[in-house]
Amino acid sequence: MQHQRLLIQIEGAIIAAFAMALEYIPHTVGPSAIEVSFGIIPLVIYSLRRGAFPGMVSGLIWGILDLILRGLGNGSVLNVWQGLLEFTIAFMVVGLAGILQHHLQTSIQHHTRVKTIILLWIAGLIGTFTKYFCHFLAGAVYWGSYAPKGMNAWLYSLAVNGGSFLTSFILTGAVLCIGLAMVPKLYLPKDMALNIQPEK
């Protein structure tokens, strides 16, 4: 049991580092402030594989890494509360996608493909929406002064973070489904993958 817990922790740390590495890929859409977060994808996969709590811990590690390696250096931290919301909570809640772990893994084992695909899209929705909802709040409360003159801060934040959410959600859902088609055992721990029922 202790060995299994250690394995999950190591896997989570690796996923966090991988998610951080993906953030260095150019991810701004056009001239706008809309961004795609590639790091969400491996974290959602890990959360579906290991559960919500390990996923949230891995997300927290990713957020701290992003804060240290990018946030503090490029002026993205305005104060303690904004930093806490956007670099710890926002990254951590992506792991909530793992609340569907049991349902998804059962669906994969029983080869109910349509249900599995729906669950993957819902998981992608949870992971991306929770993250960008935090950024939306921070955008309106802390970054409102950067809104175009005469534009409501909440509407500006909704436009920017809503666009980022939608783009990241579509990409995440698509990649999750591609992963299912190519390597369905990706979402299953090793012991479950070995015992998967043959498809009829």
Q: Could you characterize the architecture of this molecule?
A:
- This protein has 200 residues and is mainly alpha-helical.
- The protein has one domain (2-23, 37-194): Arp2/3 complex 21 kDa subunit ARPC3.
- 69% of the residues lie in helices and 0% in strands.
- The chain is built from 8 helices and no strands.
- It has helices at residues 2-22, 40-50, 52-71, 80-92, 101-109, 113-141, 153-182, 190-194.
- Helix 1 (2-22) packs parallel to helix 3.
- The two termini are 34 Å apart.
Can you write the helix and strand succession as a string? HHHHHHHH
Low-confidence parts, pLDDT < 50 over ≥5 residues? none
Please summarize the sheet with the most strands: none
Q: What's the number of extended β-strand segments?
A: 0
The share of residues in helices is 55-70%
Shape assignment: globular
CATH architecture: Orthogonal Bundle
Q: Kindly, what is the distance between the CA atoms of the first and last residues, rounded to a whole number of angstroms?
A: 34 Å
Work out the strand percent. Answer: under 5%
Number of domains: 1
- Name of the level-1 CATH class: Mainly Alpha
Number of DSSP helices? Answer: 8
**Overall pLDDT score:** 90
Features:
mainly alpha; transmembrane; transmembrane helix; membrane; Thia_Transptr_ThiT; Arp2/3 complex 21 kDa subunit ARPC3; 0% strand; 200 residues
